[in-house]
Amino acid sequence: MKERRKMVDRSNLSLSIRKQCELLGLHRSGLYYKPKGESDLNLELMHLMDAHYLEHPYKGARRMHVWLKYDMGYEVSQNRIERLYYKVMCLRSLLPGPHTSKRNKEHKVYPYLLNGLEVVRSNQVWQTDITFVPMAKGFMYLTAVIDVLVVVFLLGT
């Protein structure tokens, strides 16, 4: 798009700007538009949020707003902080989102097949578990696959 805008020659007398824009597939208003940029306050807030995010990457836009408003004393709206946090700075909290453990009522529920089964030998029953582990520069999922007889033997139950 920027390349096509640069192709418009305003000094060309034989081809009007209107016709040039039509041939290039541009809107004339796009030639005159100059982006406004961020205000000084927004730049200051983004600087503070960036430094605070490095120390507290688990904080989302809401908690960042609380920190800026009540701890730092800035009278800013949550909408402004959310726009700067998500859209301008592209920040995301390292914590998982809400409702990650709620079941979907439309999904099929499978019966518990081990009910009444006596576990007597190794390699008879296996279990798995997965958990979310926050890290310094992101997160990871830890998955464990466990032989049930070994766990029963170790726990003594």
Give the helices and strands, then pairings.
Elements: H1 2-6, H2 17-24, H3 28-32, H4 40-55, H5 61-71, H6 78-88, E1 126-135, E2 138-147, H7 148-155
Antiparallel strand pairs: 1-2
Tell the overall outline.
elongated
* Average predicted confidence as pLDDT: 89
Strand content: 5-15%
What is the number of domains? 3
Helix content: 40-55%
Using only C-alpha atoms, the radius of gyration works out to 29 Å
Cα distance spanning the termini: 69 Å
Which structural class do you get from the secondary structure elements?
A: alpha+beta
**Secondary-structure element order, N to C:** HHHHHHEEH
User: Mind summarizing the main beta sheet?
Assistant: 2 strands, antiparallel
Question: Poorly predicted ranges (pLDDT <50, ≥5 residues)?
Answer: none
Count, helices: 7
Q: What is the strand tally?
A: 2
**Main sheet: strand order:** 1-2
